Amino acid sequence: MSEPLTIIGNHLSPYVRKVLVCLELKGIPYRIDPIAPFVGNEEFSRLSPLRRIPVLIDGDLVLNDSTVICEYLQDRFPEVPLYPADPVQRAKARWLEEYADSQLGDVIVWRMFFQKGIRRFLFNEGTDEDVVRKAREEELPVALDYLEAQLPEQGWIFGELSIADISLAAFFRNAAFVRYQVDAAGWPRVAALLERAWALPAFRTLAAYEDAMLRTPLPEQRAVLAAMGAPLTDTTCGKASPRYGLRRLG
Question: Are 84 and 93 in contact (CB under 8 A)?
């Protein structure tokens, strides 16, 4: 590979995080334009017609959707496998990835993180506390009950680290941003899996950037990341005024 891959998307997005963890684990060089989709310019709309993140650019190839991107990375760079070889386990791993993208995306991202963070700080809108309460007290416990029944008592879900483990850990990181911690007494398998995943160097590397960005207004985040030595692109698609786009972020 002659040039690093390009990723467009903010580190605080779990969809972007999932892709970045795969890149880090596989040792694939990349550069990132760390924008939120809400401030993407017309070039971003051209590259991402649904105005979702992440976007991957590999030469003339432009891909949208985190699942499509991760599968492409696995096909092109198979040396560090992140999908089980067994077809049954691979199908189950893809399902857990989809469950994270869809159900955890709705509950954690849109009903918790968006309400408590993006809506308030980017759009200057109030938080719907009823939505947040229902997500924390009713909807997320149901998801945790389901996941607890899918996970082993110890180790990774399918023996070796896979996209399933990565996806679940990527989304629950956003729950931690809004001070939600999985109760190890109620869901010990989920809590243990998250602890193992977040301890990986790939997650720890990204966590340093994420923690800094949580303390930094969006217009200043790129400069902060540059000062930290993050692998940034030379140019950015993130210079437009904030505006709502399509709901799902990737």
Answer: yes
Tally the residues of the chain: 250
Strand 5-8 and strand 30-33: the pairing is parallel
H-run or E-run covering 58: strand 55-58
pTM of the entire predicted model: 0.94
Cα gap 211→166, rounded to integer Å: 19
22-55 pLDDT, tens digit per residue, is 999 999 999 999 998 788 999 999 999 999 999 9
CA atoms within 13 A on the CB side of 244: 8
Q: Encode 131-198 in three state secondary structure.
A: HHHHHHHHHHHHHHHHHHHHCCCCCCCECECCHHHHHHHHHHHHHHHCCCCCCCCCCHHHHHHHHHHH
